[in-house]
Write a sequence for this structure.
């Protein structure tokens, strides 16, 4: 029996050292080669959309900010932009600048974090330690500016909650200068370090056509030559007033995604310098009404991971009628199985990591309907527990030996 | 040699206890250096000892599916083989505890056993991650073992003896000729990374793919034995490389000779830690291609060099 005609199924997740969040990848292997991958969501549903409907707009800001631990500001801003559009609120210029500044600082910390995780996934822990050491600089800066390392709580309806004192400008520029020097170091590393290039090149290939067909967004799309960036195509906040280049690459593999993210870091440093230089004076907030009029809005936002879309519908009360979050990971996720085709098991962690996935942000409730009657039914807690015990008993496993009332055991 | 002296040399010096202490010290050097190179503080000096005793005190779980006998025997065999190999290697004096013509082959054979136990332990764990790790261990073995053998045989070829003590004595008598074998030493260092399953050749226990490879199901004292065996293997293999490739300072007074020996293996371990820091993990196919395409030809080149030099000595 040769090694190649036996298929072994390896469960990567829901609990696995390569995954930072619970998600299931059942990988069929022939030798070291991947035959097929079955992916499953749904281990981390938190009901945030539903929760948003029963809270006021101001409370929702803090709830939505907790959709993601890394791009928290992206979700909060995307949400608040939609609400402001419904309410017809026009922001003061200084508030727009501060929002853009925090957004770009968040992009730095997200991209540096990604670089470290990518290093770890290919067994290059030194890169992880170095990038996360540098990331700490921007985390400390964010804490100084907003009071928090993550979940900044900066946004409010019609502006931002904290002003940035002019005394902080030199500090911001110092951190940006330092990080720019370090980032150039990493770019140099990515171009010269052989084991790194070998592990990233030609891994997780995604052609431009596939990237478009599967609807990828953000650095994943841009690394396949798709020229898309919401900051330029549908500008919001202060982006119309800064000049920057959209970084595109045509490697179409994990190496390309690394190059794009590193290039974006350099663009981000330049954006921050422009923001500090042109920071206008004035108020940071306008008065916003508690009741938001009837209406609906879709807000697009270029999160570090790609385009983040929020949909909000107001019904004239203090609470939104519907909030819908489309995290960038959902858009990128379907491309993963394409990227894994004919890959090696060893490349699976880095290919998954290369879309910079955030599974918890993406998880939504799934309603299961009966195939024939199209009927969805809900189970009580007792029924679920009985079903669980029965499932194992049917397979001859009875770990608990408990009797559940009503169960046929 | 009396029986008591035999027991002392097997269990105390230079056998089990000395080797384990040296292994833990080596682990500390490796971890501390690795940490400092990565801008971290690193562990205090007693961390390896603390880890070992903590592991020994933990519950040792044997999976129901596993073959109990093979599963529990594998770590002990690994440690025993490593200790046995150590007895044949001259440390600072020219005479090891045991020596005979051909012990170089025996030591290499004994150093093969730990890898085989990784395979058997992983295979009989019956878990999918262990099985994959086991298969990777044995696949990797075929890539690095042959270049390592050739590299170690070439100095022997020049010295015209198959005993490690004999090789050391010959190079002590012909000072500076060890410089001829530097290429073989480099090959030995690279293959040692494969033998010890360290970055960039740590695919058999790649955490992000197959959890801990062969050791996934191991816990408690069984894992502790494996860990000690791996640490000791690092010491024994670097002592072997030091004895064969760096055979200087062998005739010195004991205290000075001991210092030179410690400096040699400390240097080798430091280079291994450095390599671990600067590389990413290679895939299995890349690792095998690298070993056969570059490392094996270099080992053969070393043999040719030694054959040529032999004509002039």
């Amino acid at each position: 029996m040769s090694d190649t005609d036996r298929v072994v199924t390896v469960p990567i997740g829901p609990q696995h050292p390569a995954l930072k969040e619970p998600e299931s990848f059942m990988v069929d292997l022939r030798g070291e080669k991947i035959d097929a991958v079955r992916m499953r969501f749904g281990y981390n549903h938190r009901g945030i959309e539903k929760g948003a409907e029963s809270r006021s707009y101001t409370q929702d800001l803090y709830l939505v900010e907790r959709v993601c631990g890394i791009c928290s500001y992206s979700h909060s801003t995307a949400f608040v932009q939609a609400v402001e559009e419904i309410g017809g609120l026009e922001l003061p210029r200084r508030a727009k600048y501060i929002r853009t500044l925090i957004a770009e600082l968040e992009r730095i910390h997200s991209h540096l974090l990604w670089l470290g995780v990518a290093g770890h996934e290919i067994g290059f822990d030194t890169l992880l330690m170095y990038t996360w050491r540098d990331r700490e600089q921007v985390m400390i800066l964010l804490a100084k500016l907003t009071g928090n390392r993550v979940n900044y709580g900066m946004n409010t309806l019609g502006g931002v909650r904290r002003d940035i004192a002019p005394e902080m400008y030199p500090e911001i520029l110092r951190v940006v200068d330092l990080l720019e020097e370090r980032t150039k170091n990493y770019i140099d590393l990515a171009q010269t370090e052989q084991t790194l290039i070998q592990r990233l090149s030609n891994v997780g290939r995604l052609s431009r056509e596939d990237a478009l067909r599967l609807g990828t967004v953000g650095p994943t799309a841009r690394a396949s030559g798709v020229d898309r960036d919401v900051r330029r195509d549908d500008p919001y906040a202060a982006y119309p007033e800064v000049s920057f280049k959209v970084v595109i690459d045509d490697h179409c593999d994990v190496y390309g995604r690394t190059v794009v993210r590193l290039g974006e870091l350099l663009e981000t440093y330049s954006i921050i310098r422009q923001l500090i230089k042109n920071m206008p004076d004035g108020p940071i907030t306008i008065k916003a009404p508690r009741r938001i009029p009837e209406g609906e809005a879709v807000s697009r936002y270029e999160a570090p991971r790609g385009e983040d879309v929020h949909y909000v519908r107001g019904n004239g009360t203090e609470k939104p009628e519907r909030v819908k979050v489309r995290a960038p990971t959902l858009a990128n996720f379907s491309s993963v199985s394409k990227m894994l085709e004919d890959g090696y098991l060893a490349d699976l962690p880095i290919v998954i990591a290369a879309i910079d996935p955030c599974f918890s942000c993406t998880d939504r409730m799934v309603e299961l309907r009966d195939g024939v009657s199209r009927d969805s039914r809900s189970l009580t807690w007792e029924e679920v527990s009985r079903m669980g015990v029965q499932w194992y008993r049917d397979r001859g496993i009875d770990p608990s030996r408990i009797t559940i009332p009503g169960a046929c055991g | 040699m009396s029986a008591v002296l035999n027991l002392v040399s097997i269990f105390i010096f230079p056998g089990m206890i000395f080797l384990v202490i040296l292994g833990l010290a080596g682990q500390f050097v490796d971890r501390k250096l690795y940490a400092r190179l990565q801008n971290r503080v690193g562990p205090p000096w007693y961390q390896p000892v603390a880890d070992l005793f903590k592991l020994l005190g933990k519950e040792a779980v044997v999976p129901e599916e596993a073959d109990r006998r093979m599963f529990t025997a594998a770590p002990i065999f690994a440690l025993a083989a490593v200790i046995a190999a150590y007895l044949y290697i001259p440390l600072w004096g020219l005479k090891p505890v045991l020596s005979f013509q051909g012990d170089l082959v025996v030591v290499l054979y004994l150093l093969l056993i730990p890898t085989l136990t990784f395979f058997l332990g992983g295979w009989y764990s019956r878990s999918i991650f262990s099985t994959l790790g086991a298969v990777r261990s044995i696949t990797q073995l075929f890539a690095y073992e042959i270049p390592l053998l050739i590299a170690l045989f070439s100095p022997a070829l020049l010295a015209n003896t198959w005993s490690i003590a004999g090789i050391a004595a010959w190079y002590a008598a012909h000072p500076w000729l060890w410089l001829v074998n530097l290429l073989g030493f480099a090959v030995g260092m690279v293959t040692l990374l494969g033998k010890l399953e360290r970055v960039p050749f740590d695919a058999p226990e790649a955490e992000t793919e197959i959890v801990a490879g062969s050791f996934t199901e191991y816990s408690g004292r069984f894992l502790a034995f494996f860990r000690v065996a791996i640490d000791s293997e690092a010491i024994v293999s670097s002592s072997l490389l030091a004895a064969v490739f760096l055979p200087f300072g062998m005739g010195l007074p004991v205290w000075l000779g001991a210092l030179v020996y410690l400096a040699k293996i400390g240097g080798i371990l430091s280079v291994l830690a450095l390599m671990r820091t600067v590389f990413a993990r290679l895939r299995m196919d890349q690792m095998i291609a690298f070993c056969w395409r570059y490392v094996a030809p270099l080992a053969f080149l070393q043999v040719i060099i030694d054959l040529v030099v032999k004509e002039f000595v």
